[in-house]
Write a structure and sequence with these properties.
Strand content: under 5%
Structural class: mainly alpha
Radius of gyration: 27 Å
Helix content: over 70%
């Protein structure tokens, strides 16, 4: 197969040299279809995948990368191809498929900067799949490892965003675990406010007020100190009463709407 594939590739190259581009493309397509597991066939598939990607045809690029990596998993440039394929999967929301590919790349790539970049992408995929706690661990680890300012900024921003998606159980557990852990300090007010909001909206008012007060005192310069004060005021006025009505909890509005 390798010999036949090389012969077809040589024919196509000669056709191109003579200006018979259409005929050359037909032969290259035949090569990719009939001999995808050969070195020559793999190069054709790679070139077609790269061209589809460059033209913005992401679904076609993904299909071609999948065919390439299925028939020829190892070749010169395979890591780069798998990386691009993983990034395209993330782009179209195929997080479940991207996770094992990125996980493998993280354990394979030797360059530390690229490894950290891939770890952040893996965290993005896990977070999008609802594995918020696992994603946060990865973002915090990436912040510690990287010397790249952009990577650190990205990991920090993503961690803060996903802290706002923690479940009650996750937020409670993480809030207890992160106390005194320096690497988690930047995230403390985000986790605390997330937990306080969950308490607030689940009508666990005493726990909410206690935690909101702690946020105000412990992080006075953080934006959540303002939000905490707003919620504390709302808690004080949480029940509107009249002779014909019972207490109702009203949502925040105006400048405080962002705090829930």
């Amino acid at each position: 197969d390798e010999k036949k594939a090389q012969e077809i590739a040589a024919e196509a190259k000669e056709m191109q040299r003579k200006g018979a581009h259409r005929e050359a493309q037909i032969r290259l397509r035949e090569l990719a279809e009939q001999y995808p597991s050969t070195a020559a066939g793999a190069m054709v598939l790679l070139e077609k995948a790269q061209a589809a990607h460059a033209s913005g045809n992401i679904p076609e690029a993904i299909t071609l990368y999948e065919r390439l990596l299925f028939y020829r998993p190892t070749f010169t440039g395979a890591i780069k191809a798998r990386t691009t394929y993983s990034e395209l999967l993330l782009k179209v929301g195929r997080y479940k498929d991207a996770i094992p590919m990125l996980d493998n790349l993280v354990s394979t790539v030797e360059n530390e900067e690229e490894k950290t970049r891939l770890e952040i992408l893996l965290a993005d995929a896990r977070g999008a799949r609802g594995e918020v706690r696992v994603a946060l661990d990865s973002y915090v680890e990436a912040r510690l490892k990287t010397n790249d300012a952009t990577q650190k900024k990205n990991a920090t921003a993503q961690a803060k965003d996903y802290a706002g998606r923690l479940s009650l159980a996750e937020a409670k557990s993480l809030w207890n675990e992160m106390q005194g852990e320096e690497e988690w300090a930047f995230l403390e007010p985000y986790v605390a406010f997330r937990l306080a909001k969950i308490y607030y909206h689940s009508r666990n008012f005493s726990s909410a007020q206690e935690l909101l007060q702690e946020i105000k005192e412990k992080y006075p310069e953080n934006k959540f100190a303002i939000g905490s004060q707003a919620l504390i005021e709302r808690l004080k006025k949480r029940f509107k009463t009249s002779s014909q009505s019972i207490g109702v909890l009203l949502p925040l509005s105006g400048r405080y709407k962002q705090f829930g």
